[in-house]
Amino acid sequence: MGLEVSEIKNDGIITFKLKGRLDSNTSNDFEERLLNLIQGGESKIILDFENLEYISSAGLRVLLKAARELKGGDGKLILCSLKDYIREVFDLSGFVSFLPIYDSMDECLGAF
Amino acid sequence: MVNNPVPQVEGGVKSSFTLNSDISELKVLAEKIESFGSENGISDKTVFELNLVLDELFTNLVSYGCQSDKHKFDLVMELKAGVLTIWIEDDGKEFNPLDAPEPDTACECTERKVGGLGIHFMRKMMDSIEYDWADGRNKLTLTKKIQ
Questions:
Q1: How far does B117 lie from chain A, in Å, by closest CA?
Q2: Average pLDDT of A78-95?
Q3: pLDDT at residue A4 above 70?
Q4: Is B17 helix (H, G, I), strand (E, B) or coil?
């Protein structure tokens, strides 16, 4: 019931695959990992949510912080393969206005 | 602390449990909701929404509502005639979520804040919300029609 995160770097694009729950229990560790990477100079980031089962506002807060860190540069944070009920959270919160969301990994890679 | 759903004579199904004010209890909350959902044929989407709304309320209590580390979050869920009713009581600080301002979800920028989103989700995902402060306790009643 925790969060498993795997990380792949290919052609300057980092893909995080998330499995499980991004909530108040797991968001601090993931935030540290994501922000360290951005502060270390990485700017093209895909979050693959295909196996993400759950997200709460604690998880949204991490994505907001990462998007702020990337603002002003030429980097992007992109979300991929959201379950319908997770997509609803992004619609209701209005986060769709600043986080690009795509259905497939090919579309995500094509967005850079 | 652990009670399995008990069929009620009126044809409803009930589950009740208590969480300690510790964020690690979120796991227990998720397990309780998931088992109540699967035992009663509630859709994954609805289980997710219930999980989210109760998580946000519980996380608020743990983050802001505690005067000590010994608070309790008492929860009863009842499914009857296609309507799920949830009664939640806690002994944290007085907090009426219905008084919370709506977040600005239309702001097309990253300058926005996350605060208030949990309550926004509750307003959008539940059919009714009633709040009462009595006997030094926050008492919240939520209902949701189950498809």
A1: 6
A2: 96
A3: yes
A4: strand
